């Protein structure tokens, strides 16, 4: 009885592996390492380097490891890249998800968790955004994820498969015990980039747009700690194992912080005054993305443990320092 984690060498997937190992579960990670790191996978998990769309490999792994649930993180994640290369995004995110869902059905795996995104809402009219809001992605990335949600919905109606699609808002922070974190040097996420600036890995930080219809003119986002998110996934597996129905759940705290508030927090927690430049808007950024966060608490009984911007920032900074030490040790 094992859980298969696709993309388990990546940022969020590696934290899910930690949460599963901490919960005493058997884990097999499938990752092709295009963006992940072998060292980020906890040694208690089995690791297989391969593609999550490889049907033969999937059938073999499911049988070999007795996989009873699949948690699907693998995918391409950079919104602007998806605009330049839509077919690449539909291939890696949608076509390969179709293969993975097919392998689950054909090989008797009945529980499936899927990493979806707030990008399925596009420029939402409501704030906070409930799960029932209009689904109108404005990027191929968002559409590629929404199509996978639809495949899961329709497959669950036709076969004995139940699923939970988790729509993440802005994921940030790192394992409090410093076992993993956001490790990609090319990451574009605000808290990661600001942490890099604070530890001297970047010269400065750009604020993309100061003329949004928000209290201070910069975008509002709902930042969720990656360890709280991982725990929500463990609860979602428990929910399915207990016979719970398929569900689509926002993952956020229900509170927005502006870009300037986040930068202030990183400066306050790090004690470093890194240079900040005001820059034009970045294409495709909605003004506000804040989760309607009631449903996940009601369905999963999830209670966040790190709903505190300074704690999220402190963990992100601690991980950034770990990466710097790792680099120094390698030199
Ligand atoms: N980071 C966020 O804020 C955020 C927000 C919403 C949704 N998500 C979703 O969460 C998931 C994980 O995101 P992340 O931030 O950890 O990204 P990440 O890039 O760190 O992790 C993705 C992992 O998937 C692997 N991968 C990609 N394509 C693969 C394939 N075809 N076969 C096998 N492995 C493959 C990569 O090597 C990587 O290890 C993604 O599906 C992403 O769309 C992330
Ligand atoms: O150097 C930076 C980086 C970001 N920002 C701003 O900070 C906010 C947050 O940006 P992030 O890049 O951290 O995150 P996004 O809100 O763009 O993206 C998140 O939400 C998306 C859905 O809308 C996807 O799911 C994506 O994977 C997820 O990280 C945005 O207003 C952005 O313009 C800056 O001002 N400067």
UniProtKB/TrEMBL annotation:
Keywords: Carbohydrate metabolism, Isomerase, NAD. Residues 3-252 form the NAD-dependent epimerase/dehydratase domain. PANTHER family: UDP-ARABINOSE 4-EPIMERASE 1, UDP-GLUCOSE 4-EPIMERASE. The gene is galE. Belongs to the NAD(P)-dependent epimerase/dehydratase family. One of its GO terms (molecular function) is UDP-glucose 4-epimerase activity. This is UDP-glucose 4-epimerase. InterPro entries: Epimerase_deHydtase, NAD(P)-bd_dom_sf, UDP_G4E. Pfam families: Epimerase (PF01370). It catalyses: UDP-alpha-D-glucose = UDP-alpha-D-galactose. The keyword Thylakoid does not apply. Pathway: Carbohydrate metabolism; galactose metabolism. Its EC number is 5.1.3.2. It comes from the Bacteria. It comes from Chelatococcus albus. It is an enzyme of class 5 (isomerase).
């Amino acid at each position: 009885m094992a859980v298969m984690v696709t993309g388990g060498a990546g940022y969020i997937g590696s934290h899910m592996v930690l949460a599963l190992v901490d919960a005493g579960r058997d884990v097999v990670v499938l990752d092709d390492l295009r963006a992940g790191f072998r060292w980020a996978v906890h040694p208690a998990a089995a690791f297989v380097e391969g593609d999550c769309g490889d049907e033969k490999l999937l059938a073999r792994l499911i049988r070999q490891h007795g996989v009873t649930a699949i948690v699907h993180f693998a995918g391409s994640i950079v919104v602007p890249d998806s605009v330049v290369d839509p077919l690449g995004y539909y291939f890696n995110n949608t076509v390969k998800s179709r293969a993975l869902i097919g392998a689950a059905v054909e090989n008797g795996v009945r529980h499936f968790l899927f990493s979806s995104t707030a990008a399925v809402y596009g420029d939402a009219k409501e704030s906070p955004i409930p799960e029932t809001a209009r689904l109108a992605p404005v990027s191929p990335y968002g559409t590629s994820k929404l199509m996978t949600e639809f495949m899961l919905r329709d497959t669950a109606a036709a076969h004995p498969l139940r699923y939970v699609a988790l729509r993440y808002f802005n994921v940030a922070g790192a394992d409090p015990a410093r076992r993993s974190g956001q490790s990609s040097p090319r990451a574009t996420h605000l808290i990661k980039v600001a942490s890099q600036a604070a530890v001297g890995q970047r010269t400065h930080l750009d604020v993309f747009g100061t003329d949004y219809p928000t209290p201070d003119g910069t975008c509002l986002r709902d930042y969720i700690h990656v360890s709280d998110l991982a725990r929500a996934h463990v609860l979602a597996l428990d929910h399915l194992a207990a016979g719970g129905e398929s569900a689509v759940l926002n993952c956020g705290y229900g509170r927005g912080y502006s870009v300037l508030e986040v930068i202030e927090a990183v400066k306050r927690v790090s004690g470093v005054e890194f240079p900040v430049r005001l820059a034009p808007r970045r294409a495709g950024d909605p003004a506000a993305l804040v989760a309607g966060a009631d449903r996940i608490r009601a369905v999963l009984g999830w209670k966040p443990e790190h709903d505190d911007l300074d704690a999220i920032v402190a963990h992100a900074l601690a991980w950034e320092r770990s990466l710097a030490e790792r680099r120094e040790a390698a030199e």
